Amino acid sequence: MELFSNLALGLSVAFSFSALAYCTLGVTLGMAIGVLPGIGPLATVGMLLPLTFYAEPTEAIIMLAGIYYGSMYGGSTASILLNLPGTAGAAVTCLDGYPMACQGRAGVALFITTIASFFGGVVGILMLATFAPALARVALSFGSAEYFSLMVVGLMAAALVGDGSPLRSTTSVVLGLLIGVAGTDVNSGTWRFTFGFPALSDGINLVVITTGLFGIAEVINNAGRIGQGEVRRVKVDWRSMLPTRDDWRKSILPALRGSGIGALLGILPGTGAALSTFVAYAMEKKVSRTPERFGQGAIEGVVAPEAANNAAAQAAFIPTLSLGIPGDAIVAIVLGALIIHGVVPGPRLVVDQPELFWGLTVSFLIGNILLLVLNLPLIGLWVKILTIPYRYLYPAILTFICIGVYSIRNSVVDIYLAGFFGLVGFLMQRWRFSPAPLLLGLVLGPLMETNLRRTLLLSRGDPLVFIERPVSAAILIVGLGLMAIVVSLSLRKHPKFSSAS
Amino acid sequence: MTEKAKRSVDGLLAGATVVALGAGAIVEALSYDPGSLRQIGPAVFPAALGGLMIVLGLLIFIKDWRPVERGSTSAVSCFVSRKSIPFRGLIFVTAGVVAFGFVLEWIGFVPAIVFGVFLTGQADGELSLRATLLLAVGLAAVCSLVFIMFLRLPLQVLVI
Question: pLDDT (tens digit, 9 = 90+) per residue, A14-28?
Answer without folding.
Answer: 888 888 999 999 999
